Request: fold
Amino acid sequence: MTPLIGLLIIALNPGLAPQARDNPISGRPAAAALRAEGLITRQPIGASIRGVVVDSQGATVEGAAVVAKNNKTGLETRAQTNDKGSFIISPLPPGIYSLTVTSKEFLPDQRQVEVTTGISPPLRIEVKSGAARTTMLPVTAVPRARTEGSPGQPQQLTQKEPTKQVEGQLESLKTGLIVFNPPTSMQTGKNETVEVRVSKSLLKDLTKGLQGSGATQNQPIQVGSEMGVTLKGTGGYFTIALLNSDEKQVITDNEFTQWLFDVLPLKAGSATLNLTAYVVLDTADGPEQHDYPVFTRQIEVVTVPKSVVAAVLGWIGGNWDKLLAALVSTGLLGWFVTRLKKTGKSNDKS
Reply:
C-alpha cells in the first residue's frame, strides 16, 4: 500500500517528482552529461570540402597540407593530399570557412569557401611558385561585404544573405554528358589529338567521328549554357595547345560542343594529364562571372622514346642541309656518284 500512496501523492503534487539535476562533479547540465556518457548522440552533418591540388602545369601536388577554419567558431579541420593530389575534409557543419593550402615547394593558397549540406563538386586549387595570392572561390557562393551609412558617419559592414542566385543556377543545371579520349600511351615527339565533347543530351551518340587514338570515356555531368574545358599535364613532359579559338564556349540544346587539344610529349616517363570542365555562372553582384568546376579527371600516361629508325630518319630530315654540305666538302658525294654510274654501266652490259 505504501508505494500506491506515494504515487497518489506525486500525482496530486507534480512538483514533488524527481527532477534532472546538474552533474555535481562536472557542473554540466544533465543532458550534456548524458551526451558525454554516450546516452545521447548527435547525427553527423554530411557537408564536406573536397578537391584536387595542382601546380601551374597541371601536375598534382602530393602531401600538401589543407586546413579548413570555421570563420564563426574558429575550429580548424586538417587534411593532406594523397598521391593523386586529392583531399576531402568531412564532416563539416555548414558555414563559411577559410581554406588554406600549403606545400614546401609552393606559396600558400588561401580562399573563402562556403559549405552547404549535400554533395558539392570538387575544387581545383592551383598553387603558384610566384607571389602569394588570396582568392575568393566558393563551393557555392561567398557573400560579399558592403558598407552603408550617411556621409560623415561611421560606415557599418553589412553582410549579404548567402547568394541564392548562384545556388539556384547550380540546382537548375541539366544533366548532360562529357566524352573524351586521351591516350594512356604516347611516343615522344609525336603529336596526339585529344577531343572533348559536351552535350546537354544523354541520348545522343557523341563518339561518332571522335578524333584521337585514345580509348573513349564518358560520364554524366552538370551542363550549363556556357562552359570551358582545360587540359594540362605534368610539367616538362608535354606541350599542350588548345586548337579552338576560345576556351569558353556556348552549349546549345541540339548539338554537342567540341574542344580540341594538340598534345606533344617531350620526354619519356610516367606523367599525368589533368582534364577539367567547368560551368560559367553569373554572380549576384552584376557582370562578374565565376568558373565552377563540375568535372575533373586525372589520366595516367606513359610516354615512350622514339624507335631507332624513327629517330635516325628524324635526325636526317632535320639536318639534311648540313649532311649534304659535309658530303660535298669531303668528296664523298662525288665518290658516291661515280660508284652509281659504274654500277649502272655494268648492269647495262649484263
In short: The chain is about 20% helix and 40% strand.
